[in-house]
Amino acid sequence: MKFPEESYARDLHHDLTKVIGSVVPGTTVGLAGAGVHWHCTIAHGARQCLVHCFDSKGPEYLTAFEHETEQRAMGRTSSRADTIAAVSNWIAGHEVAQLHERFVFVDQQKRSLESIAARAIRDFPELTRTEHELQNKACDLYELWIRHGDRSCRIYYYGKNAHPEAIFNWDEARLFAFQATDLGQLALILKLWICDHAAPSKLQKVFPWIEMGKAARYHEEGRGIEGEFIESWDRIETFYAEMNFPPAEAIQTLVAALRKKGYDRSLRAGQSMYTLMLSRSRRHGLKQGQPHVAFHFRQTGMEIKIQAEGETSIWLPVIELTEDVAALLKRLEATPID
Questions:
Q1: Widest distance between CA atoms in the chain
Q2: Which candidate, 231, 165, 164, 177, places its Cα nearest to that of 203?
Q3: Cα 173 vs. chain centroid, distance in angstroms?
Q4: Domain ranges, ordered by start, for the chain
Q5: What pTM was computed for the model?
């Protein structure tokens, strides 16, 4: 079976071989791959390019521009012509700044996020006192973090969206997010949130369209962890309501009973496959050996295991909140939040 990635790579290899030889004589152009993984390698002296070919409802080319094995830039585009031109320029000795001037796709995310940071600082010089960090997540994908104290914002591009996503955090907890179609407005919200430490309620009065998470009110009242725990139970309720699993209805009844007893304010809820996991974890995701209670559901009952200063396990023929379950959860509540 021939995959489209192979066709894209072979066509690119053919055109590169024809074009680049006349631009920089002595350049080698290689082709390698199998299945859906194909790439072209172009090399001359200390300069090299590696072009990965993908199928994304049509061709997509991801190019790494290297000098003496060190990656200097990277770009992604659906244009074979632009890929060939950029590769030819790099092999011919052009510098990264020259590629940036001619080809929008080279370091596109990185440059766009740098521009957003520069625009925000230009509008509000107070933001110079904040920490700015541009993180390379993978290939040509970047995230911009702006932090000060316990406030932060993560800005990144999702998929092929033209506008960036902005996620605003308080004490590392996500409170609200939006797609930033207006960079001037984004700069103002960054200033209010990170520099002025604006309360969520005040920010929402200025920008009524912002959808605050449930935990926002709790953070504002100094009960942030409680609010985050409650939000985790909301997500668990949605998970079991949407799952296709025979005891789903009984599990939903159990979750409702646990919440009625107030466990959603003292414990974090999560899941691993169909297993309900309760813990005192400050953040989502258990650490190795961290105390927790796991509910392993069967069609006619459940096995409950508690990991807290050793492991205890009980079996119940029904899925419901019993005194034995309450005793295990009381032990878990006695462990510190970590």
A1: 82
A2: 177
A3: 14
A4: 4-105, 109-220, 224-333
A5: 0.86
